[in-house]
Amino acid sequence: MEATPKEQPKAAPELIVSIGPHVRTEESTARIMWTVSAALLPATLMGVYYFGMPAIMVILICIATSMAAEAGMQMLLKKPVTLSDGSAFLTGLLLAMNLPANAPWYIPFIGSIVAIMIAKHLFGGLGYNIFNPALIGRAFVLISFAKIMTTFVAPATSFMAVDAKTMATPLVLLKEEGMAKLLEVFHTKAALYQDLFIGNRAGSLGETSVIALLVGAAFLIFKRYITWHIPIPFIATVGVLAWMFGGKEGLMTGDPVFHMMSGGLILGAFFMATDYVTGPSVRSAQIVFGVCAGALTILIRLKGGYPEGVMFAILLMNCFSPLLDRGMRSKVFGKAEAKGVKK
Amino acid sequence: MEATSVKANATFSGGVHPAGNKELTSHKATVTAAIPKRAIIPLSQHIGAPCKPAVVIGQEVKKGEKIGEAGGFVSAPVYASVSGKVVAIGNFPHTMGAELPAVVIESDGKDEWVAGLKETPDYNAVSPEDLRKMVGDAGIVGMGGATFPTHVKLTPPKEKPIDVVILNGAECEPYLTSDHRLMLEKPKEIVEGLRILMRILGVKKGYIGIEANKPDAIDSMQKAVAGSSDIAVVPAKVKYPQGAEKMLIKAAAGRTVPAGGLPMDVGVVVQNVGTAAAIYDAVRYGRPLVERYVTVTGRGVKEPKNFLARIGTPFSQLIEEAGGLTDDAAKVIAGGPMMGMSQHSLDVPVIKGTSGILVLPRAEVSTKPYGPCIRCARCIDACPMMLQPSLLGLFIEKGHYEDAKDYNLMDCFECGSCTFVCPANRPMVQWVKRAKRELAKKKN
User: Fold this and answer.
1) Domain boundaries, chain B
2) Is B304:B24 a contact under the CB 8 Å cutoff?
3) Which of B74, B70, B38, B36 lies closest to B54 in space, CA to CA?
4) How many CB atoms neighbour CB B336 within 10 A?
5) For chain A, which residues make up each domain, given as ranges?
6) Longest dimension (CA), chain A
7) Overall fold of domain B1-32+116-365
């Protein structure tokens, strides 16, 4: 006997209940990290083009060590492992770009360990670190292995770079031997600027090619992942102060173009100083951050013991970020008007 | 058919651009929903004191008969939206998330108006005081969703002279088109409502603010005010939360409401266009507020539609009339996706502030966990009140409510722009609500 089933009332669906807003942008922390990493690709490729196989090794060691350190530290601290958010990858890549291509394996290895384990996780992990982890990693190896870290090689003539010749960076040449020597090496001012722009010079493997870095930076600005508020004041301050105080023949005789394209300024200003976590969030505070970092950079380049000051300038400014944010917080809508109102 | 935008510069700083999704219903003429068999009419449909029931179980009532007496000055009476018999008075599911007192009326299908509704063909012959009383007696509240009793807004203290009335037709919440349709279908009623408001407040200047993505509504309202110099239609930039009171005042009148202050501090009263139309009905025909425009929309319903629905109509009925839920419907929201409240039951009724019912399919509902704040500052750029939502979130997450207060927690009106843009999915609005609640608890 077949019973016709009674029509069942449609079961109420399982409804998801949460506090609004109920729609979100597609943006995610992971997408930001991977996009910034992608924006570093042109400069990375230029680094590999100029410094060959050794550059690849440094990059791979940095990324692998950073990711392993991140996973290890998170497991140790019983936190969820978040390698897929791209943050450790980006730190590793940034550190690599700040190292000489000819550094022996333990330099990228130790730098990455310090960056991730100490600078990042001992301060609370993603979002809570005070200092830029990649720069702390670099500062550690620079101070610990000063000789290796200040010995750079000329762009290689073959991919395996077995014939790499040591060569001073343009900033070292300027600081120790003056503009005349610099022009002797690069022949003419125009050739010097051109080599700096393209990246055909000694230096950290990812910092040399201004054009490649600018392509990546333009992409990030276009995507609104970074804004001009930190990098432009940073670079402009370096330019102005270099022009004012950088010349041997007195005030206003310096070479701003050389200073703006040298060292790690372009890399630092667009990719390190713009780090969300360690820089200020308030726009006006970002401008102050950029100007101060630029001034510190020039101070170190012209008067300090190191030929380059971008790294220390950013690290020093990192500790002021919370203070700047606090002191320059935006005026709440209607706050000024509220003073005149009688309650 | 997606309407193109007209040019508009009037706006505020900050804000976000969520996908509008208004094309699901914006071109569909409003249809009258069926009279509910059982109307569940909450006694609290407004901000302020709940109503006391004015009927008893078993009593026969007509449409427009008072069933709930205002519980105080900041309160609004409620009326039967159908004719029939009171079958229950008790706690029933409410869109605010709890079970709250309501009167349930079983419809007799006759839909008869109560006798003695007083028509007023010429409101200019009625004193402002009497007009204000008519608005209060009709149970009219802010129909944009805030549900603040309208007569209270129309009773500013003497030391706060009002010189501008702004009608809010911005409808900046994605998906919702009820105000849009109302402006197309009842422009004259809206303008008459505005004139009544201006008469009550003794105001010479009226604005109607409309987001520029509704050129047909702008056109419709411009035609309705043609020839009068005291009312201007202001097209405003398409940006959320353009329809927030303070933002709209900034855009339409160029005035900045002081932090912690009210629109009346800058001589402005803002009312939703739906409220204005209801005021016209109340004054002209003596009809209390018993129905409203409701958009039933989202990809979780089969045939999104705009309805003219009775107060007390269960969500389930309107959803059925909109073709029913899709198989993957996952979230039902009273209001829009930015500030609306998600519902756990479809038994909740339409109330005076229900501008829409939005049903999202599973794929459009994010249940991703939140991560640490990476201080990207997107929320700071988005906040229309110029707050630092990231910091508020960090404070509240750790229970530092007083610190959050120092960082202007109380100026947040929970528009959700910060949470909308947050790449780490941080639930800022939820936290802000929690902090305000905790601080209020401490105060008591």
Assistant:
1) 1-32+116-365, 38-107, 378-443
2) yes
3) B70
4) 28
5) 30-149, 226-327
6) 110
7) Rossmann fold (3.40.50)
* A299: exposed, middle or buried (Cβ count in 10 Å: 0-12, 13-18, 19+): middle
Residue type, B305: K
* Cis amide prior to B337 (ω within 30 degrees): no
Q: Does residue B97 surpass a pLDDT of 90? A: no
Q: What is the CATH number of domain B38-107?
A: 2.40.50.100
Quickly tell me which residue has 């870095």 as its tokens.
Answer: A213
What's the sign of the alpha-carbon dihedral B219, B220, B221, B225?
positive
> Which tokens sit at A128?
């809570």
Structure tokens at B127: 């004193």
What pLDDT score does A249 carry?
Answer: 87
Q: Is the Cβ–Cβ distance between B16 and B421 less than 8 Å?
A: yes
Over B156-191, what HEC string results?
A: CCCCCCCCEEEEEECCCCCCCCHHHHHHHHCHHHHH
Q: Which residue has the higher pLDDT, B161 or B7?
A: B161
Distance (Å, whole) CA B185 – CA B171:
16
Give the count of alpha carbons within 13 A of B64, CB side only.
Answer: 14
DSSP-derived pairing of the beta strands B231-236 and B205-211: parallel
For chain A, what's the residue count?
343
The pLDDT assigned to A184 comes to: 92
Is some CB atom of chain B closer than 8 A to the CB atom of A335?
yes
Q: What is the ipTM of this complex?
A: 0.92
DSSP assignments along B64-83, one per residue: T-EEEE--SSS---EE-SS-
The region that residue B114 occupies, defined by phi over 0 for left and psi between -120 and 50 for alpha, beta otherwise, is: beta
- Residues in A 135-164 with any Cβ partner in B closer than 8 A: none
The two most distant CA atoms of chain B are separated, in Å, by 64
Best residue in A333, A335, A341 for a mutation probing chain B (most B CBs within 10 Å): A333
B356: contact with A, CB 8 A cutoff:
no
- For the stretch A241-255, what's the b/e string if a residue is b when 16 or more beta carbons lie within 10 angstroms of its beta carbon? bbbebbeeeeeeebb
The reply to whether the predicted model has a pTM over 0.90 is yes
What CA–CA distance (Å, rounded) separates A205 from A101? 5
Q: pLDDT band at residue A343, thresholds of 50, 70 and 90?
A: very low
Give the type of residue at A303. K
- Cα–Cα distance between A215 and A40 in angstroms, integer? 9
| Chain B contacts in chain A segment 222-261 (CB below 8 A) | none
Chain A contacts of B20, Cβ < 8 Å?
none
Judge contact between A126 and A133, C-beta under 8 A.
no
Structure-block tokens of residue B262: 């009210």
